[in-house]
Amino acid sequence: MLVDPTPEAAPIYDDRTKTATKTDRILAVQQRLALCPPLMQALTRSHGRLLSTDTYAAMLAEDFTPAARARTRHEITAVATAIDEFRRRPSQLPNPVTVLSVTRAARHHARNLDVIREYHRRYAEQIGARFNECDSEHIVPAEQPAHIAAAIHRLVNSA
User: Which of 6, 115, 128, 144 has the most crowded Cβ, counting Cβ within 10 A?
Assistant: First the structure.
């Protein structure tokens, strides 16, 4: 099950240095702001509206902290650095595979949604996977756990 994947060959990575630099700047600001938990709660209120209370509380405690933002900055840099290697030697996927694509995007991601969804569709065809849509934004397992469970159940039963 590939949930809202961005495979290494996706066009979004073609200009990865610019994207990684911009993302790092945003995360650096968030890392400083995370020193004040009430401020991070105010800034991430949109997540709170999408997710269950427990999930949002866990994200505030685990994901929106200075240490978590620092880890994410490190991960973004590592991915941007490794894309060329990933493209030369792509992962071998199990069979069967389901590609789960989201149908909505937050305001700042909306401009790329159509491109990403089309890429998901083509990627699923390319690898012989089932293409599945989910009425969700980016954090599918947190927003739509029942959809994920049903897709996994279908996948297991088809194997």
Answer: 144
Encoded amino acid at 32, one letter: R
pLDDT tens per residue, range 39-62: 999 999 888 888 889 989 999 999
The DSSP result for 51-90, as a single string, is: S-HHHHHHHHHHTSSHHHHHHHHHHHHHHHHHHHHHHHSP
Cα gap 138→149, rounded to integer Å: 17
Its pTM stands at 0.71
Between CA 4 and CA 99 the distance in angstroms is 7
CA distance 74 to 25: 12
| SS3 call for 158 | helix
Backbone angles phi and psi of 15, in degrees to 5: -115, 50
User: Which residue do the tokens 């590939």 mark?
Assistant: 2
